[in-house]
Hints:
Elements: H1 16-35, H2 38-45, H3 49-55, H4 59-69, H5 82-95, H6 99-114, H7 127-132
Amino acid sequence: MTEKRAQPGRPEDPEITPRVIDAARRVFAHFGWAGFTMERVAAEARVGKAALYRRWPGKLELLEAVYATTSDPYVDIDTGRFVDDLRLFARALIVRQDEDHMLFFRRTEIEARANPELFADRDACGAEWCDAHGMGC
């Protein structure tokens, strides 16, 4: 049996990743791809750049992590009953009233058209949602 050895240094702070994801979502929403820098995200999240690079090798991987954790509430609403679907859709609309989330999805639309190479792997931006809304990202 192999014994697991402790890593040198202090343990990883579990609160950093969600804080960085939220900060990265805000930075991308407000500044787009050109302004989406590791420096800016680190400052917004109040962490050092090293904390980012330990988790993500670069800004593209960080943006992919943001997309992976920013689910769209409109995908897959199909309970089999129209009334229940409508109720879930209404709840999803309320959740998405958050300005940063709305800006994030709007910025995705813009960036998908301006920088299609960023979205060559369509899974990164939620292909089902994009197809359903005719956004071609």
